[in-house]
Amino acid sequence: MKRMLKQLAAGAVTALGLTLASVPAQAADTIRIGSFLSVTGPASFLGDPELKTLELYIDKINGSGGVLGKKLELIHYDDAGDASKARTFANRLLRQDRVDLIVGGSTTGATMAAVPLIEQAGVPFISLAGAETITTPVKKWVFKTPQSDRQAARRILMDMKDRGFTKIGLISGTGGFGASGRNVTKEEAGNFGIEIVADETYNPKDTDTTAQLTRIRNTDGVQAILNFDFGQGPAIVTRNYAQLGIEIPFYQSHGVASDSFLELAGDAAEGLRLPASALLVADKLPKSDPQYDVLNRYKSDYESHYNESVSTFGAYAYDGLQLAVQALMKAGSTDKAKVRDALENIDGAVGVTGTYRMSPEDHMGLTAESFRILEVKDGDWALTE
User: Which residues, if any, are the signal sequence (predicted)?
Assistant: First the structure.
């Protein structure tokens, strides 16, 4: 494990054009990494694997000597998916704990509640949430690791276009993630020659969506249906879809890219497609794939340590920590402005989610092509290409 961590740290340095010898020695205190995550509550399927990933790899890093001669210290709070709690905890991390940087924010709501405080304090922040509003427009101190909802919409629409679909139905949740996904899908559809001929929504607490799906099914010309949401809602929609016997192709968003969704949806998920990280099919990739090593190393580390399936959400935390380590090493110190500048100039860092190429105009650094289109086959994930 120590050797693997050293490879990770060395790879981070190499990716930034540095050598270990060029990094100055530091005092033997800690580098304080703050985090607020939704470890409990309705978004725990996001926050739980994210926290486990941070804890696992911070232990690995510290076991191999730390970063810049210092141990990493994780200071974490559970916001339980509550944006107001996230804001309170972010303020505590900034004012009381005086962290050097923050890796966290499981949901868009929690992230955006904290952003004004973080921007005011001038502390580098790597969010693990998906909405494009987090980094569009660019905010000086804010970065993120997941692809945006707009990129997910584009990747789905690309696949629909390739399959010859020109008219689709859209069903989405009214929460922050679903509403944002709905908006960007509507904005992007025309660019792919696709018309949204049915547009339905449901509330996060709804337990049945058969009425909405029936209206979509009965709309003339519908060739495929997309559900854009995360949490329990998409599993309900998927089961209702199967119960109604709808036979046209069905898509979900990246918000359900985990084995837990397959467990919730059961046989009803068979045949659906979604955009996701290659992590879910890591063992099915050719060894020549640029992400093969990092994907399979993370999968092996996580599953052997926790005895549970890896998820793409935990991978966002892996990439966030990796980028933080690279930026710290490039900066050669914990100076916040230098670390921020180093993050903004990361170019070619291969993560679990994709290859990151940050710039002053792009604080995410991924493209729509970093998504792979997966299909559920025989109750498991399979590559479609």
Answer: 1-27
Angle at 90 between CA 100 and CA 63, to 5 degrees: 40
Residues 301 and 249 grouped into a single domain: no
Question: Do 245 and 185 lie in a common domain?
Answer: yes
Mind spelling out the 3-state secondary structure of 66-122?
CECCEEEEEEEEECCCCHHHHHHHHHHHHHCCCCCEEEECCCHHHHHHHHHHHHHHC
How many Cβ atoms are within 10 Å of 341's Cβ, its own excluded?
A: 15
pLDDT score of 12 more than 60: no
Report the 10 Å Cβ neighbour count for 158. Answer: 17
Mapped onto helix, strand or coil, the DSSP state of residue 258 is coil
pLDDT of amino acid 113: 97
Flag whether pLDDT at 166 surpasses 70.
Answer: yes
CB-CB contact of 215 with 242 (8 Å): no
Rounded to whole angstroms, the Cα distance separating 178 from 190 reads 19
H helices then E strands: how many in the chain? 12, 14
Q: Are residues 131 and 174 in the same domain?
A: no
Instruction: Using CB atoms within 10 Å of the CB of residue 25, give its burial: 0 to 12 exposed, 13 to 18 middle, 19+ buried.
Output: exposed
Alpha-helical (H) ranges within the chain are 2-15, 44-63, 83-95, 108-121, 149-162, 176-189, 210-217, 233-243, 259-265, 292-306, 312-331, 336-344
pLDDT digits (tens, 9 = 90+) for 290-334: 999 999 999 999 999 999 999 899 999 999 999 999 999 999 999
Cα separation, 279 vs 311, whole angstroms? 8
Burial 205-231 (b: 16+ CB within 10 A, else e): ebeebeebbeebbebeebbbbbbbbbb
Q: Amino acid identity of 195?
A: E
**Structural domain that includes position 319:** 2-149+287-370
> 63 and 206: one domain?
no
Q: 356 with 329, same domain?
A: yes
- What count of other Cβ atoms lies within 10 Å of the Cβ of residue 129? 26
159 and 196, same domain (yes or no): yes
